[in-house]
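Internal ticket #5521
Category: modeling
Description: The requester needs a full-assembly model to guide mutagenesis choices. All entity lines are attached below as received. Residue total reported by intake: 585.
Assigned to: D.W.
Attached entities:
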Amino acid sequence: MTRIIRAELIRLVRRRTMIVAGAGALLFSVVATLTVFSTARETGVGASRQRGTTIAALADHGGGTEAFAIGSSFVGFLVFVTFIALIANEFSGGTFRALLLRNPHRLRLIVGKLAGALVVTAAIVALAEVLTFGVSLLVAPGQDVGTTNWFSLESVGAGLRDYATVLAGVTGWAIFGTTLAVIFRSAPLALGVGFAWAGPFENIIVDSWQDGYRLFPGQVLGSLIQGGTTELGIGRALATAAVYVGIAAATALLLVTRRDVTA
Amino acid sequence: MNSTAVSVTGLTKRYGGRTAVEDLDIELPTGVVAGFVGPNGAGKTTTMAMLLGLVGRTAGSGTVLGRSIDHPAAYLPKVGALIESPAFYPALSGAENLRMFATVAGHDTGVIPSLLETVGLEDRGDDRYRGYSLGMKQRLGIAAALLGDPDLLILDEPANGLDPQGVREMRSLIGTLAGTGRTVLVSSHDLSELEQVCDWLILIDTGRSLYQGPTQALLDDVSGGLAVVAERPEDHAALHRLLTGGGLDVDTRDGRLVVAVHGADAGRLAASVNRAAFDAGIVLVELHPQRTTLEDRYLTMVQDPGHDRTPALSGTTRGGDR
């Protein structure tokens, strides 16, 4: 397994990839910070971050990573489509077949590839959080947001908690993306289905059916990344996501081990 | 070391109602360079994919490098393969791709420069794979197959799509690999491509075995008869009368007399023809077995499967040793 993870890192950790990832993380941090700070309200928006935040919350312990946590809600979808493309291309391009000839343990191979890509994802998410903290430090004075509380131990804990929930959410999205890629073995097809489901389908239905926020996998993972929402608390989001992710992972592993590799 | 690199019996693969490979037996001696020949759709790739554990079998059993084909993980570390088209990561260089594949398999990455040199890519190893020509991609595929110094190489149509120069280079490369003592199984639908490098042949069609055995056994087949040409064309009629008068079955083809062998010793028959011509004062300028090319033999087998059961063949034919 470690060999496969190392090989995946050889593939992904390259100068060009890192420059693109770094630029993406920087862009995210600037856009997320400016958006969150410019839309922060004077008074309460409730416990949930889904409707934005307040100036008071930004100035509080953990305020330095508030923009990261709020802005990360769309990162899950980005991870979803990235993993679909990464894994589906392995099948359609024949590299999965070629790798199997060197390491015939199919479970290890797919899990190792997923793990390797998740290691890189985790590093990029961490970079995005650090950059967002830095940009927030630059932006805060201009928005009359105090930053004294950001350097407390409590803030470190809040930052780690934000990182953990975002990482848990993107891991779920990564596994969903991998499952779709394994099922369809074609990036265009898997992306089409993924876009249709996580985009219009879920979002249109939840507009008229509130239970969708608690039941649809995309909504559940969205709630998880935001640290819980008014419709779905963090605990239940985590439990529901675990069930969905477990089913998706089992489906993917079953298909990978049972199907002929013909491409 | 095992005397057989591959030994499988009853290998069968069905996709629903379609049979891709049917009851195929393969006995591949260690150290040979074997050509696996059949037309497109004959089942070559499916057979190789089954041996490599990529595709499940409907039936059949056997061993590869002495290990059961039920457990590909036990023998794949000593098998190098290029199956279907070469598959690499376009954004990585040739050397990076090899490094990645070596890492996955746990092979030594230090051999990569020498492998690139073996396949003639030493100057292009740092270029991105997406910029490679088809021939370079195929050669990188062979370099990847050589990672881990395998005992058995399985190459699926390595010259497919190459221009004549590329085909020649690939043939030369396979010849080089053949000299290293490892067993090579190389598939192709083009017999002429394999004729010069393979000392063993496995011929299949529609998933069934037609022949397997030494290449020389097919080349030595004299069922085409003895070709006889007199020095003076005007002597041909007299020679024809002389030979038919001696009880031989003689035909005229392309300006030559062709004496049917009918299972007789071709050498003795040639001697008696030569003696008769000499006694009649006719000088022969040609007297040799009318050899068919491998391609002709293969096409004959495909069109008339019963034809391959000739005593001239020393290899295993369908309905023969099995």
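Resolution: model delivered.
Comment from assignee: The CA atoms of residues 226 and 289 of chain B lie 4 Å apart.
Ticket closed.
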